[in-house]
Fold:
Amino acid sequence: MSRRGIPGRRNSAYFFLAPAAVVLLLVLTYPIVESVRLSFFEWQLRAIRQPPTFVGLRNYVELFGSANFRQSILVTIRFSLSVVIIELILGTLFALLLEGDDVRGLRVFRTLFVLPIMIAPVVVGIMWRFLYHPSYGKINWFLGLLGISPIGWLSDPNIAMYSIIIADVWQWTPFVFLLVLAGLQGVPKDLMEASVVDGANYLQTLVSIKLPFIAAILGLTAMLRLIDSFRSLVVIFNMTFGGPGVSTEVLSLHLYKTAFTSQRLGLASAVAVVLLLVIFSFSAVLIWRAVRQEGR
Structure:
């Protein structure tokens, strides 16, 4: 195919994508602009019929002076980094173990393995809350068989964070597994055969061929999961509602409580703007990497 035909095809693609892109831009832009606008106003949910009062930067000053807000940022960072690192390690290990097709029943096992990501987050949260129940939860029941006393998985502030991390890892490790597996299946077979001919063992092949080949996919996966983990709400909402105390109150849950518990929509909008800036920063890095990769 001549290179002259490529720009024409690209222009046609842009033409057909333009209407959907415009609609999507409008749908996304209005809530963002409205959130930024409301962040400069004091507006109570209980007095929603009354016009909001302009307060300038007071919401942001109050926000960054709040110990609960700063705590929610630390909790979010701790939660996000923990789940991303664990999911990357486990997802990559499972992908390396299950990349072949020579084991009987392997395809069926792969299908069963990815089922957690198909379950609605609200169901995941409720399911794990029952599993962690101190009296009739199956986890404490099993520990009782081993002679271990019941553990307050969701009631102990020192353990609750680890409990929701386990739930998130259970649900999203299959997502990492799928992306890494797709990358591994794209490794050129002639390279693998050449490494075998050269006498390289499995570890040498893994370090010199497989991992470098999927490095870009690992980076993309890590960024996607980091962005998504910063938006985590439903599972934590149904498991702990940010408790005990504020030990599991991530930024998105702090936003929810500010809007619907404290009923301060202006202050909640300021939280939303901060969260939006964080997510946009990660998204910008993701887009930059994609453009850079395409340029190569």
Summary: The mean pLDDT is 87.
